[in-house]
């Protein structure tokens, strides 16, 4: 029987599918999730309280000879994480970083030419940290916590991650948020009125790289 999963902060279709052993595309494209797809548009930006239908597993039978080795691969695992770093509006290219996921070190490498760290992680990952300069500079990650762009908290989260907003992501209007919006709008050639309108949301989505 299908399961009704109520989204909590940090959930995504990838993490929900992983928890139930079902490919995320199977969950997202289930007919019972049509209204959710129309509302959110992006399986990675759900909102607490959204309801996701997790369909029944589809049983498949494979025939293989005994005394032979057979290889099976689970689809949809792992998930991709991409984070981009800038300094004075310039990509931080070719910098040594260390990545921790759920407080466990998983990789050391170099940022690419665009200042990005792009790695594969477990869909169940909730927290991460990227360290530079041997740990002297640390950036904490809340994986899966970005709310949809049509929510006020989603606007705050994108502005904060882009370096324009430094307040709490609490879904509340404030003078600090208005000033952040004005700064973002001015830097992207928009009317700097400090209000949240469709052109501002569209510019945030483009700037954030969704």
Automatic annotation (TrEMBL):
PROSITE patterns: LYSM. It comes from the Bacteria. Residues 3-54 form the LysM domain. Signal peptide: none annotated. This is Putative peptidoglycan binding domain protein. It comes from Enhygromyxa salina.
């Amino acid at each position: 029987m299908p399961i009704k999963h109520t989204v909590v902060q940090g959930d995504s279709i990838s993490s929900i599918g992983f928890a139930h052993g079902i490919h995320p595309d199977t969950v997202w494209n289930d007919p019972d999730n049509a209204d959710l797809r129309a509302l959110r548009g992006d399986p990675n930006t759900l909102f607490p309280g959204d309801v996701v239908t997790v369909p029944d597993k589809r049983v498949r039978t494979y025939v293989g000879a005994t005394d032979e080795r057979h290889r099976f691969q689970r689809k949809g695992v792992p998930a991709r994480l991409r984070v981009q770093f800038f300094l004075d509006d310039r990509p931080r290219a070719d910098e040594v970083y260390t990545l921790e996921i759920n407080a466990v070190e998983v990789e050391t490498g170099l940022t690419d030419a665009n200042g990005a760290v792009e790695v594969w992680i477990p869909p169940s990952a909730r927290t991460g940290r990227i360290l530079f300069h041997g740990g002297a500079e640390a950036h904490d990650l809340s994986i899966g916590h970005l709310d949809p762009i049509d929510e006020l908290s989603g606007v705050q989260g994108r502005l904060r991650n882009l370096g324009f907003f430094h307040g709490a992501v609490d879904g509340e209007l404030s003078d600090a948020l208005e000033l952040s919006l004005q700064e973002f709008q001015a830097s992207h050639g928009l009317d700097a009125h400090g209000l949240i309108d469709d052109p501002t949301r569209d510019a945030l989505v483009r700037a954030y790289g969704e």
